C-alpha cells in the first residue's frame, strides 16, 4: 500500500508481484527439455524482521498507540522550521516501522495463500497502514497552505529539513490537487475500501478458482497457475493445445465475477482522479512522480509503429517450429532446446559472470547477498505465484520471492529480481526519507541485468544450438517485456477511459476490448498468429492491472535497460558512472529528470526505436545461424 501524494512514503513496498510469464510477461516462461531442478532453492528468514507472530502483533499495537501523537501535530507544522522538522521526523520514523510491519505480514501471507491466519494478519497490516494515512491526512493541505516561499525559507533555515526537501516539493507541486484537511481525511479513510477489489482478486485467483485436472503423458496434473506456466511451453503442440483448452475456460467461467471485481477497481481509481481534480486517471498516475504523459503516449505510439518487427519475429517462430498456422497456444514454446536445467547455484554463478561489466563492487555485494536467506525460491503449493522484490524494510535488507524451477526463465527471473534488490542496496545509501525510488526507475536495473545475462549467454554459447537458444530467449524477452507490456498499457488506457466516459464495463466488454488488442498485436488479420476468441479473457490473468498504469513502465524500462546494457557492455566508463549515480539517487529527485541526467529521454521515440533495432539485429543473427548447417 502506498500513500498518495505524501511523498514521505519513500520506502514504499516494491511488490513486483507476479513477474511470471503470463501475468507479468516481462518474464516469459520457457521450459527445459529436462525435468526442472530446484536444487539449492531457498526459504527466506522473516525472523530478521520479527522473532515471531506475537512480536509482530505487539509492534502493531505499539504503533497504533502512537497515532494520537501524529494527529496532535495538525496545525503545528507551519509554526516554525523546527516544528516542521519535528513533525516530519516523527512521521518518517513511524512509516519506517510501518513498512517493516507490513512487509512481514504480506510476505507471510504470500508463503501460503491458503493459510487464513496469515491472510488475516496481512489485512491487519494494510489496515494499520491506512489508519496511519488517516492520522497524517492533514499534512498535504497544511504544507500546501504554507506556500512555496515559506517552505523554502524553512528548508534554508533548518539543515535537518534537507532530507525532506523532495517530499515537501512534491506536496507543493501537487497542491492544486490537494483537498481540504477534512476531505483528505475522508479520502484516506476510504482507501482501505478502495483496495478491496485487488484483495478479492488475489484470493480468488490464487486460492479459490477450481483448477482442472488433466493427464499429460500419463501423469495427473492439477492445472493451476504454476502448472500452466510450466506446461504451456511444452514441445508437444498437442500438449500445449490441451493445456490452453483446459486452463482458459476456468477464467472464462468466472468472466462476470472477475469483470465486476476489476470494474470496481477502475471506478475507485476514476473516483480518486475526479475527487482530486485530475482530467483523467492516467494524468493522476503520472502526476505523483511528475512524469510527462508524453512518455506513456510515446511508448504506445512507438510500440504500434514497431508491430512489423514483432510480426517478423512471430513469423520466424512459426518457421522454426514448422507451424502451418501458429495459434496463441504456440507463443511460449522455445525455439531451441537448452543444454539442460540449471540449479539455483548455477543460476547465481551465471548471473555473477554476466554482470561483471557492472564492476567488482557490484558483483561482490551480490555474491555475498546470494549466501544470505533473503529469497524464498522454493516452489510449494499455495505460494503466491510469480516473483517480486520487497525493499521496504530499510533497516534489514531486501527480500525476494520467486519459484525457482530450473529452466532458463528462472535464471533470467533470478537476475531480474536481484537487479531490484541491488538497486535497493545502493539506494539505501540515501537517508531513509529519500531511499525509495519510483517504479519508473525501478525496472531499469532489473531489465538491464536480464539483457546483460542474455548477451553473456549468446557470447559464451559453446555450440550453434546453444547460441540459437540464447538468441531466441533474448528475442522472447524483448517481445514479452516491450510489446506485450505496451499492449497491456493500451488496454489500461481503454478500460479507464470507458469508465471515465460513463460506459458500462463488464467482463464481456473487457474481454472484447482485450481481444481486439491481442489480435492487432499478433497480426491475426494478416495470418501471423491465429487468436481464438476465448483468449480475450486473458486480461483477467494479469494481476498488475490492479496497480493502475504500472505495467507500461516495464516497456519503458527495458528500453532504458537496453540503452545502459549496450553502453556498459562496451566499457563506456562515463555511462557506468551515470548508471550508478542513478541507482544511488533513490528518491532524491523526480524520476524523469534523473533518467534524463543519466543520458536518455523516454518521452522521445529514440529509446523505443533503439530497442526495436536491437530486436531486428538479434533476428538477423538468428536467421544467419538457422541458414547454416549444424
Kindly list the characteristics that best describe this protein:
630 residues, mainly alpha, Butyryl-CoA Dehydrogenase, subunit A, domain 3, 3-stranded mixed beta sheet, two-stranded antiparallel sheet, 5 strands, 60% helix, 3% strand, globular, OligoPept_F_C, protease
Q: Which outline best applies? A: globular
Going by CATH, what is the homologous superfamily of the domain at 47-196?
Oligopeptidase f, N-terminal domain
Average pLDDT score: 90
The number of helical segments is: 24
Strand content: under 5%
Terminus-to-terminus distance? 53 Å
Protein name: Oligopeptidase F
Domain Oligopeptidase F N-terminal: 142-209
EC number: 3.4.24.-
Cofactor: Zn(2+)
In short:
The chain is mainly α. It has helices at 53-71, 81-111, 116-135, 139-146, 148-157, 165-173, 181-194, 196-208, 225-231, 237-253, 255-275, 281-287, 293-305, 307-320, 344-354, 360-370, 408-427, 439-459, 464-500, 507-521, 552-569, 573-585, 591-597, 606-627; strands at residues 213-216, 219-222, 375-376, 388-390, 399-401. This is Oligopeptidase F.
Describe this structure in words.
The N terminus is likely disordered. The strands form two sheets. A three-stranded mixed sheet has the order 3-5-4, with helices on one face. The chain has a two-stranded antiparallel sheet with strand order 1-2. Helix 11 crosses helix 19, helix 15 crosses helix 17 and helix 21 crosses helix 24. Helix content is 60%, strand content 3%. The N and C termini lie far apart (53 Å). The chain contains 24 helices and five strands.
Write the layout of secondary structure elements.
Blueprint: H1 53-71, H2 81-111, H3 116-135, H4 139-146, H5 148-157, H6 165-173, H7 181-194, H8 196-208, E1 213-216, E2 219-222, H9 225-231, H10 237-253, H11 255-275, H12 281-287, H13 293-305, H14 307-320, H15 344-354, H16 360-370, E3 375-376, E4 388-390, E5 399-401, H17 408-427, H18 439-459, H19 464-500, H20 507-521, H21 552-569, H22 573-585, H23 591-597, H24 606-627
Parallel strand pairs: 3-5
Antiparallel strand pairs: 1-2, 4-5
Helix pairs in contact: 1-2, 1-3, 2-3, 3-7, 8-11, 11-19, 11-20, 13-19, 14-24, 15-17, 15-18, 17-18, 17-22, 18-19, 18-21, 19-20, 19-21, 19-24, 21-24
